[in-house]
Amino acid sequence: MIRDTSGQDVQLTPASPWKNPRLLKRAGLGVAAAAFVVWGLMSWQSTNAVDASVSLSRLNIAAVERGDLVRDLVVQGKVVAANSPTLFSPAQGIVKFAVKAGDTVEQGQLLAEVDSPQLQNQLAQESAMYNKLSVELARQKIQAKRQRLENTQKADLAKVDLTAAQRELKRAELSMEKQIISQLDFEKASDDLARAELEYKQAVQNSQLENEALTFETQTLQLQVDQQQLQVEELQRKVNELNIVSPVDGTIGSLAATQRASVAANTPLLTVVDLTSFELEAAVPENYADDLGLAMEVEINMGGRKLPGEITAIAPEVIDNQVVARVRFTGNQPKNLRQNLRLTARVLLENRSDVMLVKRGAFLDQTGGRFAWKLNDQQQAVKVPITIGALGLNQVEIVSGLNEGDQIITSAADELEKAQLVALKD
């Protein structure tokens, strides 16, 4: 009988590999090797994660610090005469110049004459009318005196009649008591006294009214004379202005008419430039127009010298995207200033104290002031977002994104254009 294999099979329990010291040692070595490989890969990836590399010799580095920032604006300007009056013809006529363009003149010096027969004839007519009215006024005053005397005489005669009537009434009263006169004569004396009183009263009132009327007529004529005198004085002033004199010490800038030319009234004739007083006419970009203000301090650069000044006028219109401002020298004006001399001016717009700031550089134009590359301790530069504030001539205010003591790249480079992490090489 053949026996089957059931008796040959023996069930065995597998042993746990964790209980074998040799296997545990090998597993530990494997894990350590894998960790080393992963660390190496990560280190290799970290080393090669930079987007670009730039030599430090090509870059400018600046530190963020805290201090005072002066917000300013540098503009170009030209020197112009602060006082350059243009003289006009006072009337229609023929002009005769006594000077030429470029001549040096003094205040009060005769520059030109305008021959105006029409104005001179008008002055003569008005003067004659003034003399006529003056004579009439004198005649009116004499007539008024004569009339006042007549009025006074009438009042005095009425008073004499009144006095006589009063005496007649007293005489009639005495005669009536002695029965010398009749009742009719007494009453007649009373009526004569009443009539004399009335005539005297009316004579006084008429005298007062006529005196007032004479005074009124005299005053009316006096006003006419005064009015005519004003017209004569005005015409005389215009005739005197036919001799055109220099209002200031200076130089003749230009002649607007030719010699012996016929000119109309209020026609410009010539310009006098006062060389003792100059101002700077500066062109300011229109986006800074709202920041300008009168009496704002200005620092004028003239051949390395810094001269103080202030804004005295701001043009209300914008021409070619610029606003013209006038700057006056506040200190002693330089003696070597010339018309149309080109100078640089620094307008002090604002002064901010205790703010974070950094040196101004080309990185502002490259990123529009929105980013900066900050240096880390691994000789790398990381692109970080920033917010800038006021812009100064040499510095810029940092509102956020950087801290005091941080170092950033202030110059521009093509490698930084799209790089997030930049390696810096010596």
TrEMBL record:
SUPFAM superfamilies noted in UniProt: HlyD-like secretion proteins
Per its UniProt record, what InterPro entries does this chain match? MdtA-like_BSH (IPR058625), MdtA-like_C (IPR058627), RND_pump_MFP (IPR006143), UPF0194_transport (IPR050465)
Superkingdom as given in the UniProt entry: Bacteria
Q: Which residues form a coiled coil?
A: 130-245
Q: Which UniProt keywords apply?
A: Coiled coil
**Where is the protein localized?**
Cell envelope
Pfam families per the record? BSH_RND, RND-MFP_C
Q: What is this protein called?
A: Efflux RND transporter periplasmic adaptor subunit
